[in-house]
Amino acid sequence: FFTRDDEHQVATAGHYLNCVCTDWTYFYSIMFSCVLLVGLLVLYMVWDVNYFLRCVVTLGYGMLFQRKRKVTEETSIYSLCTTQDVDIFIRHMNNARYLRELDFARFHFYGLTGIYGKIKAKRGGAVQGASSVRYRRTIPIFNAYKITTRLVWWDEKAIYLEQQFITLSDGFVRAVAMSKQCITNVNVIELMKEFPGAEQRPEKPAELQLWLDSIETSSQKLRKDK
């Protein structure tokens, strides 16, 4: 039979074991948090995590909450100039950030129009062949803006997109970009015939022709330099 002293010793031992288990649980939780924090730090050092997260969020939001667009329609994404976007003077968006934002808008266009899905279905791909940005006015820090994307022309090997940065406060076009998206392993003219409203190519914009001429001039110069 247990005496009162035995019962007291058992209770004391149980309390001790409970404290030990609690301490070990707390220790493991702290260790797990530290490992997770270090892992995230290393991940941010090795990879541009924000870039990939932004791609996922932009594409996911477009596919889940926005209606599909015709390939001839304009698409828009919205953003804000934050402290991660500014130049050394911390006043407005730096020039390199514009090109990064254009990526997100272009991916969004590909997703909503379904053009990239058709390219992949034909075992093709899309790569940036050339781009040109004209900066008209800076985007100040903490200003909201949108980026519009529209298809302006295409040939056998590429599609040409015009993209605009427009501040929401005044509707002013802060920058205009033209990009040449080279489509691999696919005849683009035949591909576009699969999209309603794109059976016939539109007239080539004058500024696009001048830009293509400058690209060809540069290519010829580089060939001569070899």
UniProtKB/TrEMBL annotation:
The chain crosses the membrane at residues 26-47. Keywords: Membrane, Transmembrane, Transmembrane helix. SUPFAM superfamilies: Thioesterase/thiol ester dehydrase-isomerase. Gene3D superfamilies: Hotdog Thioesterase (3.10.129.10). Signal peptide: none annotated. CDD domains: 4HBT (cd00586). It comes from the Eukaryota. Belongs to the THEM6 family. This is Protein THEM6. It comes from Anopheles darlingi.
